[in-house]
């Protein structure tokens, strides 16, 4: 209820007034609700991934990504010849972010499980998979590993949603999900 500094400097010895008690209680209860909502939403919200993260140097991550590309490349796309890679079902797959691209393009099989490793070669990028609701911050020096089983065929876009410099808006990648039976 104070607009001006308290006349009595020892304000913490003053008795709480009813409105103050009410506001403190409301804020405290709301804080508790928000805290438990985080835990609740993690379990039922269908949007938070249970992530694994490990330390890894950009050099080692690049080596693993390049090894996968060399082994399983099926074609190239675009003016810049971005490799399209079709790794075997059930394997560890890699996608690296750097100024300003997600590399390479992955072609995955519907209904198969993969371990997707993500890391950055330089600084922070965002991995936003569209239209699926997957959204991760990717940092250099760490790899995020997510276990995925694509359930729908189609073309998915990876959009960088962390501002990363002048080419940020051009930083997109792609994942294809195909049905082997067709
Ligand atoms: Cu990478 Cu924005």
What does this structure look like?
- It is a single chain.
- Helix content is 23%, strand content 36%.
- It is of the alpha+beta class and 182 residues long.
- The chain has two domains: 11-44; 51-178, Immunoglobulin-like (Sandwich).
- It is elongated.
- The mean pLDDT is 91.
Can you give me a brief rundown of this structure?
It is built from 2 helices and 12 strands, in the order αβαβββββββββββ. It is an alpha+beta fold and 182 residues long.
Secondary structure elements and their pairing?
Layout: H1 18-44, E1 52-55, H2 58-72, E2 73-77, E3 82-85, E4 92-98, E5 101-103, E6 105-109, E7 114-120, E8 125-130, E9 134-138, E10 142-148, E11 154-159, E12 172-178
Parallel strand pairs: 3-6, 4-7, 6-12
Antiparallel strand pairs: 1-10, 2-3, 4-5, 7-10, 8-9, 8-11, 11-12
The structure holds dinuclear copper ion.
């Amino acid at each position: 209820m104070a607009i001006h500094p308290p006349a009595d400097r020892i304000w913490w010895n003053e008795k709480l007034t009813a409105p103050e008690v009410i506001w403190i209680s409301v804020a405290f209860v709301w804080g508790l609700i928000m805290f438990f909502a985080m835990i609740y939403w993690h379990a039922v919200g269908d949007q938070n991934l249970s992530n694994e993260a490990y330390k890894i140097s950009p050099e080692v991550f690049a080596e693993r990504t390049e090894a996968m590309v060399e082994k399983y490349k099926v074609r190239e796309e675009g003016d810049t010849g971005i490799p399209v890679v079709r790794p075997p079902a059930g394997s560890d797959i890699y996608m690296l972010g750097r100024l300003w691209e997600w590399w390479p393009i992955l072609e995955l099989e519907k209904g198969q499980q993969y371990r997707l490793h993500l890391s950055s070669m330089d600084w922070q990028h965002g991995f936003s998979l569209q239209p699926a609701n997957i959204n991760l911050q990717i940092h250099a020096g760490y790899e995020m590993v997510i276990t995925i089983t694509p359930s729908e065929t189609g073309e998915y876009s990876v959009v960088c949603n962390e501002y990363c410099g002048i080419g940020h808006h051009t930083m997109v990648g792609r994942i294809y999900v195909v049905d082997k039976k067709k």
